[in-house]
Specification:
It is a single chain. It contains 5 helices and 12 strands. A hairpin with a 2-residue loop joins strand 5 and strand 6.
């Protein structure tokens, strides 16, 4: 069955939540199993694109957002989508006008007990992150930026901890649990054929459900707080009226939208 009225779906893809991924060596470019991680990401993307195509979606934009945005194997990607890789001026270029957002291969927020490769943005830089006083992760940031543009987040895939985080944050979101977390570096994995089939089926169902899921819109103004991992000089807030330094590791910013607050926090 086709997704009535759904023309464009935007897919953000990370690596830590991809099916078959559970180890540090699979997600870092200087590690010996990174080539394996790249292939697994490409297979998950193709499964998602196939599901969206099954449901009649006309325009599919996939953004490889892991690390330096060069992880997916370009020459092995499904030709029914277009792909964003490399440096970009914005977190989600070409998002505007999308009917829905899919967060594929995402991981749980920093500090989630026993979640596979849990972190928020940077495991070496970010200790904890809060959005409007609620401890949050990358899923909330990206769903919130989509919400700024009126785009609902309709699906997420990853481990059981990530899927629970998504369902708690976004009523009605569909999730594809491709592994059950056992530790930060261990999981019970679905076999490849079942994982890819689940992603395909869930993507198709999510496209058909677009109209029934509300965009994630945190209360305005948006307040983001970041606690860094290590000691150091906090940001200079003297010329930034929207920034408050709370201690040597923690600062807070305020913005009119999630996107504005995120850029003020990170730029």
């Amino acid at each position: 069955m086709e997704a009535e009225g759904v023309v464009k779906i935007y897919v953000m893809v990370d690596l830590e939540g991809v099916s078959g991924v559970y180890a540090r060596a699979q997600v870092l470019p200087d590690e010996p199993r990174f080539a394996e991680g790249r292939r697994y990401m490409t297979l998950d993307i193709n499964s998602c694109v196939a599901g969206l195509a099954d449901s009649g979606v006309k325009e599919i934009v996939v953004h490889d957002c892991h690390g330096g945005s060069y992880t997916a194997l370009w020459d092995e990607l499904d030709p029914r989508a277009e792909y964003i890789q490399g440096e970009t001026p914005d977190r989600m270029p070409f998002l505007k006008g999308s009917d829905g957002l899919i967060l594929l291969g995402y991981h749980a927020m920093a500090g989630t007990p026993n979640a596979v490769l849990e972190h928020t943005m940077s495991s070496v830089g970010w200790q904890n992150f809060w959005l409007n006083g609620r401890k949050s992760g990358e899923l909330a940031i990206d769903a919130g930026i989509a919400g700024d543009y009126g785009v609902p987040t309709i699906m997420a895939s990853g481990c059981d901890k990530l899927c629970a985080e998504a369902r708690e944050l976004i009523p009605g979101i569909l999730t594809a649990q491709v592994k059950t977390a056992l530790s930060i570096y261990g999981a019970r994995l679905l076999p490849a054929a079942r994982a890819h089939g689940l992603i395909r089926e869930t993507a198709a169902a999510a496209a058909r459900k677009c109209a029934g899921i509300e965009p994630f819109r945190p209360a305005r103004p948006v307040v983001m707080r970041l606690e860094r991992v290590s000691r150091g000089t906090p940001p200079h807030a003297g010329t930034r009226p929207w920034m408050k330094v709370l201690d040597a590791r923690t600062h807070e910013v305020t913005g009119d939208t999630v996107e504005e607050a995120y850029y003020r926090l990170t730029r």
